[in-house]
Amino acid sequence: MREGLEVTDAKAQNVGAMDALIAKYVGVQGGLMRALLALQEADGYIDASALPKLAAAFNLTKAEVKGVISFYDDFARAPKGEHVLRLCQAEACQAVGARELTQHACERADVAMGDTRMDGRITIEPVYCLGLCANGPAAMVDGKLKAAVGEADIDALLDAWEHEA
Amino acid sequence: MTRIFIPLDSVAVALGADEVAEKLKAQDGVEVVRNGSRGMLWLEPLVEVETAKGRIAYGPVTGADVGSLLAAGFLEGADHALCLGLTEEIDFLKKQERLTFARCGVTDPLCLKDYKAHGDLSGLRKALALEPQDIAEEVMTSGLRGRGGAAFPAGIKWKTVLGATATQKYIVCNADEGDSGTFADRMIMEGDPYLLIEGMIIAGLGTGASKGFVYLRSEYPVAKAVFSEALENAYADGLLGDNILGSGKAFDLELFMGAGAYICGEETSLLDSLEGKRGQVRAKPPLPALEGLNGKPTLVHNVISLCAVPTILAEGGAFYKDYGMGRSTGTMPFQLAGNIKHGGLVEKAFGVSLRELVEGFGGGTRSGRAIKTAQVGGPLGAYIPPALMDTPMDYESFAKIGAGVGHGGIVLYDDTADMAAQAKYAFDFCAHESCGKCTPCRIGAVRGSEVMAKVIAGTDVHGNLELIDDLCEVMTDGSLCAMGGMTPIPVMSAIKHFPDDFLKGDKE
What we know:
The complex is a heterodimer.
Chain A lengths: L16 H7 L7 H13 L6 H9 L3 H10 L11 E6 L2 H4 L3 H12 L12 E6 L11 E3 L2 E3 L4 H12 L3
Parallel strand pairs in A: 1-2
Antiparallel strand pairs in A: 1-3, 3-4
Helix pairs in contact in A: 1-3, 3-4, 6-7
Chain B lengths: L1 E4 L4 H5 L2 H9 L4 E4 L13 E5 L2 E5 L7 H7 L10 E4 L4 H4 L17 H6 L4 H7 L3 H11 L11 H10 L6 E6 L8 H8 L1 H15 L3 E6 L4 H17 L14 E6 L9 H8 L23 E5 H13 L1 H5 L2 E2 L2 E2 L1 E8 L5 E6 L4 H8 L9 E6 L6 E2 L10 H6 L8 E6 L4 H15 L5 H19 L3 H18 L3 H5 L1 H10 L1 H5 L5
Parallel strand pairs in B: 1-2, 6-7, 6-9, 7-8, 12-16
Antiparallel strand pairs in B: 1-3, 3-4, 4-5, 10-11, 12-13, 14-15, 14-16
Helix pairs in contact in B: 6-10, 6-13, 7-8, 7-10, 9-10, 9-11, 10-13, 17-18, 17-21, 18-19, 19-21
């Protein structure tokens, strides 16, 4: 295995850290994708300040880099909420009530699908299939998989998030 | 020591298997093995206890059940309300024909010793003793067709890559399993990752490629963790690297993560993504087999296609070809999903009827209501009405009813489903996931959604349905790839088989 491909949990925006992170992926297969995944994982989004650095490192224009970022759903261009709830919107989950569950969650959390609440606490996002299609509705709660999610689970989750110190 | 098996599979974990494992690990005299899933997903977390009589299953087990299970003496295989008897005797499993998934759920997926104890890498060992032409010929003989959805004969692809002259060739595994209702790739990567590694090494030997990539979707965190560890173990063991099992032959394999784009399941889009670009579809020709990754000859295969290869080499192409019917040879892992009572994975030879799968294995809807339809083959697959469910699941029979087997995913719906809403969703999904390169797909999907909204609202229903028909013809004939080209299939099948759902808003 190639060394240095593991993402560190250090914030990439720390002085010099972003350059070091990007430099690791230059000359590697699919380097730009890997650098963007690493930045996303480190910071939770791709900061605009990374654009010129990525363009210079991979010998691309800033427009080309922006084009890659905007193509993929996983790359965010602004920070997300402290908590992220991803709800599956695909057919297998639709067949067991994902549409109603999504509406319930958005109303209860007071945030529109795909948005972050004004207070920055909660983001609700669509996801198109988590591979839990026999056990829907499926969700990803702060990166953890959940199956057979009901309205009561959503209520308990949102209550817990609201009552955090 | 009593051995207890608790799956590490995504479904089991998403339903609380980790808590069950933690509680049982704390017991004296218990060895917990985190296995793959047996594929009886309505019973997950399915816990198995190894006894003298065989493995006894209990499920679904949550953390709250552990106390009563221990009190009942389940470590000795005692009876309990959750006891399901011997795992291998459960009908759902017993009636299957498992070749690819034979080990999944049985072994410790990360223990290479366990993998070798079940099959001894005999497919790879045979391949190491053969010439590349003979390996490709064995795959040709098997009649294996691509399991990702396109069903292209694998042997022809292998021979094309083998026949190409280049300084570097690649094997690329498409693990961007984005179709809703499919999870076979995920299950095998979590439950038997060395099978995929073995299949890819054989593919390398059979085509002259020394380097491979697995392109895995980011929505599969468990598969990522398991497969990463399996790769490390395979390198440490000398299975991968410069000297495969001491043969002097080389194969390197790397995991590459996607970033949430359904279109990257299309092979040329995947290759662009693997080059660090926007995942845009390429025009064919040139075929990826001649000019693929980095412009070099590349064998692109779905996970399940590659996972069928070790069996084909070990048992012979003729053995594999004996399963199935007509030109649909071998077995297919069908995935039962959606509103289904007994959801899970059923590996059967081609030819089993859709009804046998959804009613026999699946037990009908989870809600207990009447079946309205099954969508077969993912978001680009047809909606099939109950009247057509006796159709055998094979490529030719499905083509005859205007449908496809795809990657084997089956999403069941009960009679509350609104097919006009599903048809609109098909356009919306295409609009969201289109790579944007060709006009019929990029613009057609948006216009289709708008027109379908008018149909649902009851505005000039007949005129707008005619417009949809016309638009679908353009998308089918004019799109660059299956995304735009096959979005009309769910739309038109829904209109054809369930016209009332589209006419109910009609005010005329």
